Amino acid sequence: MRRGVNVYVLLVIAWVVAMGYFLLFHTGSSTSNPLRQSLDRYFSGSGKNNPQRHSLDQHFDGAKDRINSENLVHNGGENLVQNKDLVHNGDENIVHNSRVDSNDDLVHDNQDLVKVASAIAEKHGLVLFTLLNDAFYDLASSWLCNTERMASLHSKILVLTTDVDTGRRLKRRWPAITVVSMNVSAFTGALEYSRAGYVRLMVERTRCINRLVQAKVRMLLFEVDFVWLGDPLPEVLSHKDADVVGVGVYGRNHQLICGCFLLLNPTPATEKVWSRLTEQMEDLYKKVANSGSKTAVSEATNDQTFLSSLLNAKYGGVKVVYLPDDLFPEGKWYMEPKLRAANPNPLVIHNNWVIGNDVKIKRAKKFGHWFVSNDSTTSDVICNVTAVSNVLAKGPKPST
Ligand SMILES: *[C@@H]1O[C@H](CO)[C@@H](O)[C@H](O)[C@H]1NC(C)=O
Ligand SMILES: *[C@@H]1O[C@H](CO)[C@@H](O)[C@H](O)[C@H]1NC(C)=O
Ligand SMILES: *[C@@H]1O[C@H](CO)[C@@H](O)[C@H](O)[C@H]1NC(C)=O
């Protein structure tokens, strides 16, 4: 008995020493350092009160198309020089600039994108792919809370972040998802829709998607300014003979597809469409390569309009299927009571047609579609399980 107690005491002492050692040598150098975290938070929030951003935070009205989460804040002009250096020569430089500490297996290097995505697609039949920067951390957290309990959904998710810290934060909080990080400071901070900085990020996203499509990885491209009232995969995957399955932009009679939610089946037609789209985006890149990140770029030239033209022209024989508008409404659903009354149980709602993440978050909160808050004890986010359950209970019941 006494002997047992002594062994126990020794074990406790050993544990305390080990923990002390761990805290001393690990927290100081990593991003879990509280000081580092508060600095990160300070800098990632620094665009919030910018008057230019506020002037954009208004309802968008008229024939504009993709007013979604990327329509954001600010990126210091200083980043531009680095942006040119890093992006100008294509993927390769970005890849070389995205080395991650070798003793840190939280996030993978962008070089591994195809390998990592292929492994997920092999196991689950597809990969759910999104590209995020630090400005999307809260929206991403809320969406991850939203979908956390959907069967094996998180294990199908591959998030590509533009910086390593955001990748690590996400992976630490959401161990079931897979994270790949770039390390491109020009892509951090909020980038405004239809501005050169944003367009360059979309060029990079198109290149990454192209790498996956050409490697025959089946993917659902998604964005995080969405609420999912149920798992849309059964509906999305039910269109067996389509090359591309997507969501139509509101009011455009399925002539304009949203670049926000796209199933890409890796068929020869999809490969042709995506390699042509990548060429078009590379041409666009050349035009904006030397522009300041806030220089306006016409909406007539972006990934979404180029893709829509290719799809409308049935380029490469591509077959596109649009998902039912009532199940996949856009942000107009939030804005027009008539649309909501006519369509009370959508499956997936895009929180778009407004500009600015804080406006989107406010709207999501108003409709009970916000699922996350800060936890003062762990300094990480916690999910509002009640809000998630309420929303999932409202989704359409799967037809049998
Ligand atoms: C990211 O890039 C910067 C500047 O190029 C470099 O100093 C830093 O070490 C890189 N970080 C990682 C994790 O690779
Ligand atoms: C958590 O706190 C940070 C720092 O104040 C803030 O930037 C962030 O928006 C908060 N997140 C949530 C989900 O409230
Ligand atoms: C959680 O969600 C419920 C339902 O939307 C809401 O009433 C409650 O205030 C939320 N709790 C927190 C801490 O945000």
From TrEMBL:
GO CC aspect terms: Golgi apparatus
Pfam families, A to Z: Nucleotid_trans
Annotated TM spans: 7-25
Domain of life: Eukaryota
Molecular function (Gene Ontology), one example: glycosyltransferase activity
Ranges where the Nucleotide-diphospho-sugar transferase domain occurs: 153-363
Keyword entries, A-Z: Membrane, Transmembrane, Transmembrane helix
Residues spanning the signal sequence: none
Annotated protein name in UniProt: Nucleotide-diphospho-sugar transferase domain-containing protein
Record organism: Littorina saxatilis
